Amino acid sequence: MSDTQVAFSDLDLPSSVLKSIIELGYETPSPIQAACIPLLLKGQDVLGMAQTGTGKTAAFALPLLSRIDLKLNKPQVLVLAPTRELAVQVAEAFQAYARHIPGFHVLPIYGGQSYTLQLKQLRRGPHVVVGTPGRVMDHLDRGTLVLDELKAMVLDEADEMLRMGFIDDVETIMAKTPAERQTALFSATMPEQIRRITKRYMRDPQEIKIASKTTTMENIDQRCWIVSGVNKLDALVRILETEDCGGIIIFARTKTATTEIAEKLEARGYAAAALNGDMNQQLRERTVQRLKDAKLDILVATDVAARGLDVERVGMVINYDIPYDTEAYVHRIGRTGRAGRDGKAILFVAPRERRLLKQIEQATRQPIKQMDLPSRDMVQNKRLESFREQITTIFNDEDMAVYRELIDQLAVDTELETLDLASALLYMAQKEKPLILPPEPEFKPRRDKDSDRDSDRDSDRGAKRERINYADLDVYRMEVGRNDGVQVKNIVGAIANEADINSRHIGDIRLFDDYSTVQLPKGMPVEVLQQLKGVFICRKKIDISLMEGEIARPAPRKPRTEFKGKGRNERGSSDRGAPRKPRPRRDA
Ligand code: AMP
Fold first, then answer.
1. Atom of ligand 1 nearest to the CA of 53
2. Residue 562: what pLDDT?
3. In a mutational test of the pocket of ligand 1, which residue from 26, 99, 355 has the highest number of ligand atoms less than 8 Å from its CB?
4. What does DSSP say about strands 536-537 and 77-80: parallel, antiparallel, or unpaired?
5. 202 and 224: one domain?
6. Does residue 443 belong to any structural domain of this protein?
7. Segments in 114-231 forming alpha helices (H)
8. Atom of ligand 1 at shortest distance to CA of 96?
9. Does 233 lie in the same domain as 135?
10. Residue 516: is its pLDDT beyond 90?
11. DSSP 8-state code for residue 504
């Protein structure tokens, strides 16, 4: 985070794009955006040293949107991305930023998706194509993707594409695009092969590297939680319940997120408020004063709104969304540990943001300890402890005589023993914070490192697969099937990514014409299921639901020729036993 703040409105972006950014709740450009957007708008080539989490997608998507000629129904921007997930994400980002550009059309293309569908979509003439190198190559070879009107090309996560063996394809694709096109290349590292591409195919690229200052923060205990199994809000609440720490500042990326989180915390009984750039100076000052006076315990803030905030009683900072860079991280956690006190800092890291975590650790030269979420027992003990304290305080501070009499009276009226009466009152007193929590579901989040890549996942499913205990699995139905072009790996990918379930805990997957079934660990939390429901595979919402009464068992190994996956009640076989469609040349 730099001290001289640029505003989005300073960046000469089209008003339609600015409108979308405001609606999305972005407050200020991230450092990579502030540096890249003006250069890309001027038509220059850019070499950005940046990774996921820095805001790099908007850094290229926002300016390149202004280059699109909507009347020309041909690809004018091509983005190459290493994985299906990233391609879809980038396409969704384009769509979100272009929500006020009527007639704009972006298309993600990747291996595993049906060619017929892609051909139909390509014929509609998307303005932006976001694809994995293998599939883009296939379409170029078949003549179904024509790039003669291409104005700009983006190589996203170039070092990942190199690592996954796509770099030759990338070069071949680049060689087939018009020489005068603009190029932006983003990479977390700059290995030699990538340097070579930049020299061969880019014109005077402007290199952007966001420098990070290092600072010592010995008085701050830094921990991180790798997001898995539990959603971030529930994780946040568990942490808030179990950590003792005066005032708390929670950092989120967008203004919208700050209000949402603050409202949800308030609804759960916390004294929380948002602090963001939508509030005028006076209101912000008043809110900070309330934190100082302990009328509020939690502020949910954006980076900008919390700049320079100095409140001694802040004992903990929670990075709900990972900051863009080390400098922002250092600034954020510096809001605690003021005036020589000790402070705590917790960072939520989505699996795909691990690299940013590493970068922060390297730049600060301080390890950030990985933490587990507080367990059910810890939450329960903490609740009991604070309940005990409340009782003691009331006993010490209040006159209880009249209540003792009332108890005697109630015991007579209800004909209950005092102990029974006390237990009924205790039951009533716990309200939304039950003192006895339900047992923790047997839900196994994935724990292995860096397995959020397609390639890792596939090998994970093959070589390292454990024996599955079918008694631990439930059967779920998804409304996407063979007719939609779905393959087993699409399902594994989507579930592993969205529900954060290690592919080795996913049981058999069966594909039918109009739907599929998948066996997943019992006790999936409702919110994870809810999140999965909205996931798209092959452009269709999976709308996953539990198949009540269906028992998970190994898929029958039928002779291949007998397979006829048809109706709901007809027995299918797992994809491993089913006849395979001819594979596309490459599965990018
Ligand atoms: P990226 O590094 O492109 O993967 O972006 C990471 C996340 O940051 C995405 O969820 C974006 O929506 C969000 N984001 C990007 N730029 C901004 C911004 N200027 N303000 C707030 N959020 C942003």
1. 2
2. 32
3. 26
4. unpaired
5. no
6. no
7. 115-123, 133-142, 158-163, 167-175, 192-201
8. 12
9. no
10. yes
11. G
